[in-house]
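Methods: example folding runs. The two proteins below were folded one after another, and each record is reproduced exactly as written to the output file, sequence line first and structure-token line second.
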Amino acid sequence: MAGQSGLLGLTAHELAKKIEAGELSAREAAEAANARVEEVDTQVNAFVTPTPELALERAGRFDAGNGERKLWEGVPLVVKDVLSTRGVRTTCGSKILENFEPLYDASALVNFGEEPIMVGKSNMDEFAMGSSTENSAYGPTRNPWDLGRVPGGSSGGSAAAVAAGEGWWALGTDTGGSVRQPAALCGIVGLKPTYGRVSRYGLIAFGSSLDVIGPMTRDVRDSALLLQAIAGHDPRDSTSANVEVPDYLSELDGGVEGLRVGVVTELMDERIDAGVREVTRRVAEGLQSAGAEVGEVNLPHAYYALEAYYIIAPAEVSSNLARFDGVRYGLRVPAEGVHEMYRRTREEGFGAEAKRRIMLGTYALSSGYYDAYYAQAQKVRTKIIEDFRAAYARYDVLISPTAPSVAFELGAKTGDPLAMYLQDICAVPASLAGVPAISIPGGLSEGLPVGVQLMSDHFTEPMLLRAARTAEQVAGFEFAMKP
């Protein structure tokens, strides 16, 4: 076990290099991850479906292969349970898909490798609706830093798995902050790429104009490597951008000399805990000391981003979740007549938050309310996009907190949906604008991790990762497995 412990302490990039050099095998890595899951996941509940046998089988085939292999392919991967995995159940954290097994892998997984060495499917808020991973039909995930607190959401299982050392890296999805916010609360790195940078084919949709698949890792270098693995144009996804994929690692250590960094005023006000603001300021000052030009920048319509998001996203949910009706796949509750079957299936299959957002979205799209709500929210979204465009004319990178507070206690906000939604105030502007954003651990407040968010213009991930790498260095936050 001592060898496994040392192996678990490596970053994904370090592990990949050792596997490439023949110093370690992929099977040894899979065995270490499986042992760690068995050791701690009864406490953390990061996984809906662990896949230990599959991981060992695929790792064995990887080790036995002698063809051309990519650097990252031998490193076991945690996969959020909203991504389709061939022959492995994909529940979306919902009872309605409890026994659903897709017939194909999501494109992001296909890009990663022919047979990704998958540790398991990670827990999540039902259909990615939540900021705490308490909305899962399979029980809440706990934050490895403090098992009485939430890990964030909706990719809380992926974040907790990485923080607990149950895997070296993970895939999450980000609709309004669901990669970045849990990464912040669990003390890891979470990257939301530009919308369209990573194919959404095989991602079970929440908000189709917002959903992005992104890396959740121990450090920025690992995020760059995992983005390299999953990015690329996909003709099967109509929203996939036909843009060349650059080498994300090549400029990573280039520093920030001459880079213009703007601190977002609207995301540093009294809505953000004082300790979180202080950590963000320290990181901004560190970037300035490293050679960046740091100033303040305004995103005036950021104040309206949350309201716009919680009209647009539920409207898309209302449409996307209509397919789960007991007819083609998933749960079916027998009843007299098809309409009663629809009603009972959806009543028993969906949890409270899914039902709340379906109803909110249906209301916003209904006759007489479409113009008053949905159309107005889209106008606000356009204003937010214009705000970002103006900001990037002055600054290369924007900086803010990732979340307004550190991890809160389990159950603290479940009775107040608005309080839970307010956890997204820092993350949703970048989601509505479709720009890339990354959360790095900036330090501690109240003994818990604080995430600092960096944002840049569309398809400028190489620059964003370079800035994040320097921010990570000046913050001096060292990854440590918990619990």
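Second run, written to the same file directly after the first:
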Amino acid sequence: MTPMTTPEVPDDDPMPTAPPQPDFEACCGNGCDPCIFDLHDLEMDRYRQALRAWRERHPDTPGA
């Protein structure tokens, strides 16, 4: 008799990933409002909030 195995289920709640940081050369240096770095900072804030919430939902995940 072959043992029963549980098929792997795709993760419906993957760990958030940080947004890529823009290259310094991508900034035009004209003092845009918002600057691409300001937009990246906002995305990083959203990422940190999402990661904090994800860690609360996955407290036993190693490396999280």
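Comment on the second run: The radius of gyration is 19 Å.
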